[in-house]
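Hello again,

I reread your note about wanting to compare the complex against the isolated chains. To keep things tidy I'm splitting this into two emails, and this first one only covers the full assembly. Below are the input lines as submitted, including protein chains and any nucleic acid or small-molecule components. They are followed by the predicted structure of everything together. The single-chain runs will come separately.
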Amino acid sequence: MEARPAPSLQAQGITAGYGSVPVIVDVSIAVGPGEVVAIIGPNGAGKSTLLKTLVGILRLDSGRILLGADDVTGRAPEELARRGVGYVPQVNDIFEPLTVLENLEMGGYLLNAAQVRARVLEVGAVFPQLPPMLKRRADKLSGGERKMLAIARVLMLDPKVLILDEPTANLSPKLADGLLREHVKRLAGLGKAVLLVEQRARAALEIADWTSVLVSGSVRLEGRPADLLQRQDFEELFLGAGTELGVSDESNMEET
Amino acid sequence: MDLFVAAFGFGLVSMSVIAIAAVGFTMQFGITNMINLAYGEVMISSAYVAYYLNRAGFTIWFGMVAGALFGAVFSFLLNRILYAPFLRKGTSHLGMVIVSLAVSLMIANLLLPIVGYFPVSYQEDPGRLIRWGSIALTRDQFIIIGIAVVLMLAIHALLTYTRLGKAMRATAANPTLARNCGIPTQRVIDAVWLITGALCGLAGVVAALDSDSFAIANGATFLITVLAAAVLGGAGQPYGAMIGAVLIGMITELSAAAWSPQYKEVVAFGILVLVMVLRPQGLLAKRGALAAAG
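Full-complex prediction:
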């Protein structure tokens, strides 16, 4: 069996939440370069809380976060961005009143003007739908275009680690599949460490190299997707939580 | 009829003064999410800084620069020392409005023993009267209009073409996402308080220059007019504030011609109440706070 790469980002036993109530407890995960790690689990399992903690939006109560060999526990979001951690939240993922180009420029805020221009061209090559709409206000974009802009914005800084929170939410199954297979998998192919939270569990399992199943704030199962699918308790965890593997494939759909 | 044409001329001056103040106020709110009711007191404090410099022999134009600098530093410190600690503790919007009201009263009462209650005026030759039909404005009034036009263009350029301006709009739209992009939002907010504070200070001096005299009590009346223009345009919208200033400036001057200049603030307040009833989101609300400038 192929060994996993050395982690670009890892959480070691982190506990975090809102106020004094922990939402995730003693969670450990890791993602290495070229790897897609999917975190799946029922609603309310703490998936988004985990990601917000990793990118410095939420303070953790205990545990450590390492970026490569560096301890970045408790670092501010802007510092983590500087150090190569890109984050696409599930909602509020773009600057709506700004144009597409301005969104990309803000994504590349830490670069100089010449670097921004060069990166806009490079990112435009990854998402060819975006260059023709650079002057358009971001709140005029469709769901699919919006999500591409959100990912493109993060790519402006060429991050080592890409953290995506339900990138296919509100997209049709066809668009969601395209985004996951065509773009997310390709980004991992470019050597980026991709940590993905996804409600479409089956689609996530198809592109992931490693999967962690989060239930009630704790990692209950983890392993290679093919191995997990062989396990009887894997589906039971979902079914027990009232969630099916193919969840939300038909809900909240939007076509471009 | 001539009276109303002349009032139109004064309206051009009034809208210029209000625009400088209202754009500063609305940017402060749009980006920092802070309704700063001490804004009028910072305006009047800056007007007094220019007054004392003027009395010491400096020209009012030097006083304007000094007033703008004073307003910038005063506003920056107000935020850093008083507002920011409350915001860090998670004080609600209503709580912050009350804090700013308290700050406003504190400034007024601290200022009173220093400047006194009685009105003062700048020692400044307003220049020759320039006539155009029934419109007659002084050189200083034309300069005030020119300053406002240049500042509005500068604000547009700042928000549309500069990295800082775009970062301000990004921070206004989504501060958490801005931080995730690596934007140092705290420094951006500091810059906002400095820039809007400078506009506030300058507006205070310009408003005082446009009046025959001014007194400590004018801080509150300045605030009403500024609030009316900002709310009319849509809170948090610099372009809305510019439109609001045009309307408020013109309507108050025309109403002064029709009734009495003493009712100017009453008319401004009346417009504020009407807007709150008929279109509380303001004229440009659909475009969203600090919308795409380009």
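For quick reference: Chain B touches chain A through 25 residues (CB under 8 Å).

B.
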